[in-house]
Please model this.
Amino acid sequence: MTRNTRSRTNPSNSRFGAFNPEPDDDDAPKSKSQKKRDMTALQDLGAELEALPKDRLSRVPMPEALADAIHAARKINSHEGKRRQMQFVGKVMRGLEDDEVDAIRAALEGFKGTSKAETARLHLIERWRELLLTDDESLTKFLGEHPGVDVQTLRNTIRNARREQQMAKPPKSFRELFQIIKTALDAKDAAQDAAMEAAAAQQPAPESDA
Model:
């Protein structure tokens, strides 16, 4: 009797090929390089927190353990001591849940957006100061956009600031001019906000479906 030498069908040799589902990326173990990148990112995040102004740091949502570690780091002056404490901050951060880290990142991104707006505001003030000091026609334009400004005070401040520059004197009026412009811009923004709120209040309430 002839021996049947055919082996059992191997799934890998079938005409449909082997069934090897792709592993879920979320369940796949992270590589060493990815783990290192994640640790570095958390360490950098901790450094951003430590460098925040006090008022902003108080508005960042974070667990008490992390807040304590950050505050401790801010009190250390020695380079080596701070380095060790910041390593501890990174260790604490690695123990956070993903949603806690996301909340911290969102707060920091919000601050960055605010910082950009503040920087743009400062540039606008500085631009107006430059124009007022170098171009007399700019005064008419500025007063047209900011009618609430004390005209005589503004004229005197501009004249004194120009004299300071010509005589290389301390820039007292130069700084005062900055504050006058800033106050005028803030008042204009406040008036616009009030007008928008008043307009919104006058809008008819939506009719009820009832």
About this structure: The longest helix spans residues 98-134.
